[in-house]
Amino acid sequence: MIFILLSTLIIVPALMGFGKIMENLFGSLLGGIAGKIISGILGISLVWTILAFLFL
Fold first, then answer.
1. How many C-alpha atoms does 23 have within 13 Å on its Cβ side?
2. Cα within 13 Å of Cα(21), Cβ side
């Protein structure tokens, strides 16, 4: 349980950081903290997909 809590405390700010980067690149998709987290998830999945097709 402590591991899950500590992991959440690390993952959420990281997703918010990626969301802020995506917001700077593509503009604001959604507002607030949840919007930054969702943008971070979308940004990471976009980068991951592009890298997967490049290194196939």
1. 19
2. 13
Query: How many C-beta neighbours within 10 Å does residue 22 have?
Result: 22
Rounded to two decimals, what is the model's pTM?
Answer: 0.75
Q: What is the largest CA-CA distance in the chain?
A: 38
CB 29 within 8 A of CB 53: no
Tens-digit pLDDT profile for residues 1-52: 888 888 888 999 998 998 898 888 888 878 888 889 888 898 899 999 999 9
Say how far apart CA 50 and CA 30 lie, in whole Å.
23
Distance CA(7)–CA(22), nearest Å, equals: 22
